[in-house]
Every structure is written in structure tokens, then in C-alpha cells.
């Protein structure tokens, strides 16, 4: 595994490069106090370019949703995976994130020969991987993965809101906002809260 911090936008222009089949990988949801952590992996199809791919955090919700549809329609392959709150509490968030990423990549058909991972760490996988700091704004395949991971997690938090409306997950998506902390203190810890996170752990008696 290697770490790469160069501008590798050329990888976004083609899934195939020097006989490599390249996927981009990113996660969503490491910071929240509740809900799973998600990861996605995408192999873009160079014959079907998608305009406007960039870091999902720099896109509006409407634009993310629009691009997610295009990615699913036009990518050569894509997969979304997650690790549950229980896995996060058992493994810790870093290891759970790595596991979600590995699950996403293993869900791709065809399987890539090279995985480009957003960040400075790579999950253990049976083929080559390269970590790219800020890769979600440098590599189109990673941008696409960040969009799929983010939209999938947001959809999951809306489902949690329907199950636990008292926490207002539809507004804060599980992040430790003032509203979330207020509702957490008022209603206590739910089954979908991450009990290893300090603000949640402090309320467990």
C-alpha cells in the first residue's frame, strides 16, 4: 500500500489506465453519534463521463441526489456497504470504516486491480490500494464514491428518524449538533446511538 498526495485527476478520466481497473473508495459518517458508517466504491466508465463530480461535502443535497442517480446509471460498477453501530462500538470507528470500505470494494463486479482510497489509510484487501489525502476532490472515482456513501447514509438517517422521531435525525443526520445533544439528554440513549462515543457514553447509567 502507498500513500499518494499528488493531484491524480487523471485517474478520474478513465477507469482503465495502464491495464489497471481502478475504483475510487470513500466513506461517510465517521463523526456522528448515531447510525452506521457507510462506504462506497465506484469504477467509472470512461465511455460515459459524468459532469460535476467533486467532494460530496461541496455539493448541495439536491445536486448530490442528482449525481447519485447518474453514477448508478453510468458507472461500470458501484457498491455501497456499511458497518453497524454495534460494529463501531466493538471495533472502534477507524477499524469499522476500514471494514465498510473493504466490504464496498468486495461488492464490485468486476473486481478492480487498484483501489484509490480517500484519506491517509487503506483497508487490508487482496489487491493493491493507494491512499490519497483529499482524494474526494482530486479523483473523480473517489468523488463518485463520496457522493454514493453520503446519499446512502442520509437516506438511512431519514429511516432512523421515522423510527426515532424524538431525536430529529432528519435535521442533524446524527452529528453532535446542539439540537442532537439536547434531544439525547432529554430522551436518553437509543439503540442506534454509538455507545463508545464520549457524549453518548456519558449518559449511560
Secondary-structure topology with pairs:
Elements: E1 2-4, E2 16-17, E3 20-28, E4 37-43, H1 61-74, E5 77-83, H2 85-91, H3 93-106, E6 114-118, E7 128-132, H4 140-163, H5 169-172, H6 178-187, H7 198-201
Parallel strand pairs: 1-7, 3-6, 6-7
Antiparallel strand pairs: 2-3, 3-4, 4-5
Explained architecture:
By secondary structure, the chain is an alpha/beta fold. The chain has one domain: Ribonuclease H-like superfamily/Ribonuclease H (Nucleotidyltransferase, domain 5, 2-Layer Sandwich). Helices cover 38% and strands 19% of the residues. It has 7 helices and 7 strands. The chain has helices at 61-74, 85-91, 93-106, 140-163, 169-172, 178-187, 198-201; strands at residues 2-4, 16-17, 20-28, 37-43, 77-83, 114-118, 128-132. Strands 1, 2, 3, 4, 5, 6 and 7 form a 7-stranded mixed beta sheet that branches. Helix 1 (61-74) packs across helix 4 and helix 2 (85-91) packs across helix 3 (93-106).
Summarize the structure.
This protein is of the alpha/beta class. The chain is built from 7 helices and 7 strands.
What is the mean pLDDT? 92
> Percent of residues in beta strands?
15-25%
Uncertain runs with pLDDT below 50, 5 residues or more?
1-14
- The CATH topology assignment is Nucleotidyltransferase, domain 5
**Count of domains:** 1
What is the percent of helical residues?
25-40%
Order of H and E elements: EEEEHEHHEEHHHH
Corresponding CATH architecture: 2-Layer Sandwich
Quick one: CATH class?
Answer: Alpha Beta
Count, helices: 7
How many strands in all?
7
What overall form do the CA principal axes indicate?
A: globular
Amino acid at each position: 500500500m502507498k500513500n499518494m498526495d499528488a493531484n491524480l485527476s487523471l485517474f478520474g478520466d478513465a477507469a482503465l489506465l495502464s491495464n489497471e481497473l481502478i475504483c475510487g473508495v470513500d466513506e461517510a459518517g465517521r463523526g456522528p453519534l448515531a447510525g452506521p458508517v457507510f462506504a462506497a466504491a465506484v469504477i467509472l466508465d470512461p465511455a460515459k463521463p459524468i459532469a460535476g463530480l467533486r467532494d460530496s461535502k461541496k455539493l448541495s443535497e439536491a445536486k448530490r441526489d442528482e449525481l447519485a442517480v447518474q453514477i448508478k446509471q453510468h458507472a461500470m460498477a458501484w457498491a455501497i456497504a456499511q458497518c453497524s453501530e454495534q460494529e463501531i462500538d466493538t471495533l472502534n470507528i477507524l477499524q469499522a470504516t476500514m471494514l465498510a470500505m473493504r466490504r464496498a470494494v468486495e461488492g464490485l463486479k468486476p473486481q478492480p486491480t487498484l483501489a484509490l482510497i480517500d484519506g491517509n489509510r487503506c483497508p487490508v484487501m487482496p489487491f493493491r490500494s493507494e491512499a490519497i489525502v483529499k482524494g474526494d476532490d482530486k479523483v473523480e472515482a473517489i468523488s463518485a464514491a463520496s457522493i454514493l456513501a453520503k446519499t446512502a447514509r442520509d437516506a438511512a438517517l431519514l429511516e432512523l428518524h421515522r423510527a426515532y422521531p424524538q431525536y430529529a435525525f432528519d435535521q442533524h443526520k446524527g452529528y453532535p449538533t446542539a439540537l442532537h445533544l439536547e434531544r439525547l439528554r432529554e430522551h436518553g440513549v437509543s439503540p442506534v446511538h454509538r455507545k463508545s462515543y464520549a457524549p453518548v457514553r456519558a449518559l449511560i447509567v
